[in-house]
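tl;dr need the bound structure. longer version: we got a ligand (D-gluconic acid) that a collaborator sent over and nobodys looked at where it sits. i said id run it. heres the input, straight from their email, havent touched it
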Amino acid sequence: MRIVDAKVIVTCPDRNFVTLRLTTDDGLTGVGDATLNGRELAVASYLEDHLCQLLIGRDASRIEDTWQYLYKGAYWRRGPVTMTAIAAVDTALWDIKGKAAGMPVYQLLGGRSRDAVTVYGHAGSATVSDVLEEVAGLLGRGYRAVRVQVGVPGLEKIYGVGRGGFYEPATAGARPDEESWSTAKYLNFVPELFAAVRDGFGYDVHLLHDVHHRLTPIEAARLGKALEPYGLFWLEDPISEELQEGFRLIRRHTTTPIAVGEVYNSIWDCRQLITEQLIDYIRMDVVHGGGITHLRRVFDLAALYHVRTGSHGATDLSPVCLAAGLHVDVAVPNFGIQEYMPHTDATNAVFPHSYRFEDGLMYPSEEPGLGVDIDEEAAAEYPYRQAYLPVNRLEDGSMHDW
Ligand code: GCO
Ligand code: MG
């Protein structure tokens, strides 16, 4: 089973996606997500200019060897661009292997560890009363877990607050949007939000919150402590993730569970956090975490240290990544929760798939392989548009973490 074609498809059905499609000499195809939000063409070039030619003629069944060949062979290991490109190849090869075996990919990972995948939805609005309405809507649609974000009085545009009911952080244009931030205003306001949500909906629903890397360790410790009465499922990305020792300080002060990892690309990025038990959930995902092969390795390490999974699932991860992630979620022993932000109709039309959402749970496809594809004709109708994630500044104009 040799690879005879490797094609990179860039499309923008409401947002940019990069997809790798591999074809074998016996006519099987496999797809892998290669989208890196705001830096899409760097990965497209990495694949087109450096990897695709190495894939032609390779045995498509040798997933592990191909992973090692691309990882060790580059000499320049890790990093988001490299790991996203390797992930795309790896994901497409698992898709092909599933089709060759006539089995959904989760069967190749050891079969189901659970019936379905619990997901969390997003409520994020400018005011607390609008957030409460959104939470009510999500619970009405069956969600059992909700990530809650709110605008902060005095700050015009901040992370996690939707524009017109749909949250999409990247904006089209030649330059990034600028958002503003005040840690003091945020820390003083956020506990009120959780008090209001618990007042309105009680303690049966899981509540999550994303700080988006904006605090110092001691500020994060204060927030975790202030939120303890509201029993959060997790507090996400409380501090920037480079200084891993910083998490020790948070841990010393609060029992609020901590989730981290959407910007990590390899097991080396999270090894200390896992082995020192500084986090409770690891949020790496298939596309930015080196593919199914590497993500599984990360999750197995996490299982040894009682760290559960909580994969990133924002809309910039394509339906190909979501499909692959659900196969991993349903199979691993230490699954925690999966983020779910539904894609737009245009995106869904470009990526036909058979995973489904029902009553707060998601079900991976039962078709052989991943159960997702790219409709190349539909994709061709949506050419790439330059888009950036926003930058974030303090009120005095200093650059701050986004
Ligand atoms: C999340 C994330 C996203 C990211 C986005 C970056 O928790 O879903 O923080 O909103 O910012 O995916 O590309
Ligand atoms: Mg996040």
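gonna send this back to them w/ a short note. The chain has two domains: 3-104, 108-369.
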